[in-house]
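Form 7-S
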Amino acid sequence: FSSTEINNVVHYYPLIEGIGNFLKTPTVTQYENREAYVEIVENGLREFFDNSKDVVYKNSTCSKIAIYCNSIEELENDVYATAVRICEEKGIDPSTSILKYHEDNKEYKLSPDARMEFETLDTPQSKIRIVLLVQIGKEGWDCRSLTGVILAKENKSTRNMVLQTCCRCLRQVDKY
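Output:
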């Protein structure tokens, strides 16, 4: 059994028609100096907490932001330290609010609960507010409580991959 109707709906439904209909209306902020990625992360986190610190959706999930890093070293050495500092400034416990999720390497190991925390981000039990990612969460990840995405550094990804990554935060929890 096959149906071309479903394929056509998916293929021909313009993204612009979904915005405000079943997708959130995005705000895009660009920075000229893409080499100052730690500053971009810092500004993005401050803006997220200023606008979304107290947001809890009708399904009892709290708002979250994802930060895509180019390497585990960048995540561990620069971005994580910045996220911890911003959480502490905002009165948020970084030990329960930040999730580091990537493929293990010899130097940096994930916590034993990282996979479970990642898979349950979109539940009321999750208190994670900042999700730090390397090469994970670009496709097939559905977390409607994800309120924002920070792509702090340019990389060699295709435009399609950048679009997929950015659109992770567009799914609505509460209509409109």
